[in-house]
Each structure stands twice: as structure tokens, then as C-alpha cells.
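Q: I have two molecules that I believe assemble together. Could you output C-alpha cells for the complex as a whole instead of separate predictions?
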Amino acid sequence: MVILSLPSRAAMDLVGSAAACCTTVSFLPQLIRVWRRKSARDISLTMFLLFSIGIGSGPITAANAVTLALALAILALKLRYDRRASGQ
Amino acid sequence: MVILSLPSRAAMDLVGSAAACCTTVSFLPQLIRVWRRKSARDISLTMFLLFSIGIGSGPITAANAVTLALALAILALKLRYDRRASGQ
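A: Yes, here they are, computed for all two components at once.
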């Protein structure tokens, strides 16, 4: 007979934290990519605007604050590089 | 004397839902932009991979399911257009 134990609360918390960490950290490689390529033409301004508004009006947590900062940084770089590209 | 009332539970729920809606819907303009431009060179594969893993291992809600579907669609288009671009 096989007994399947339910995941403990601690294990579920760990998975939840790891999941939240993934979504937060995920914006860092995007920021680095835009910074390195000095281009963000394929990136949607509307996406990062809506996303920032959504995160900014949600509950204030450390993870949300980091996500918001990264999303705003990507947004700022996009505006900068798009303007530079259209000025060429 | 000015009496400031605390926001009602309903009002807070509304703001929370609107915030969640923004972050979910935000991926749609990105998908449309990549689809229209047939290019996703500036988009980070790592971002959408990490984001999808994070959303996918979090709690299963309707909003998360939509976000995951949109993120995976962007990921698929990126792989497709990047391969096409490198094959040229």
C-alpha cells in the first residue's frame, strides 16, 4: 500500500516563494537585454505601462517593489532608445 | 471636523481586481506587437521562461491561467521569429 503524504505547509510556502521569486527576477534579464542591445523596438510600451500600473496599485510587498522598479527601468530605457532610434 | 472613512472592503477588492486585471491584460499588447512586427529580438527568452515557470507553479487562478497562456504564446513567437531571422 502506497501512502501519499500531503505536502507540508512549509513545502508549499517554499514553492510559493520560489514561484514569486521567478516572476520578480524574470524582469532582470529583460532589463539587461535591452541595456546591452540599446534597443527595445520589439517591446510593447503598453505592456510595461499596464504592468507597472497593475503592480503599483496592488499590495506593497518587497517582491512587488522590486518588480515595479525593474518594469519602470525597462520602460525608461525603451523611451530613451526609441527616441534615439527615431532621431537617427 | 473632517471624518475620513477607511476604504470599504468592496472598494479595496475592486482596486485589487483592477490591479490584477492590468498585469494580466498587459501581456496582450506585447503579444500583438511581436505578432505584427514578426520580430522579438529585443525580448528576453530568459524573462518569459522564468515568468512562465513562476506563474505556472503559483496558485491556479483564472488570471494566472490567462497570463501563463499569453506569456507562453509570446515565448513561442519569439522562438519562431528568432529562428526565422537567424536562417535568413
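A: One point stands out. The CA atoms of residues 2 and 8 of chain B lie 18 Å apart.
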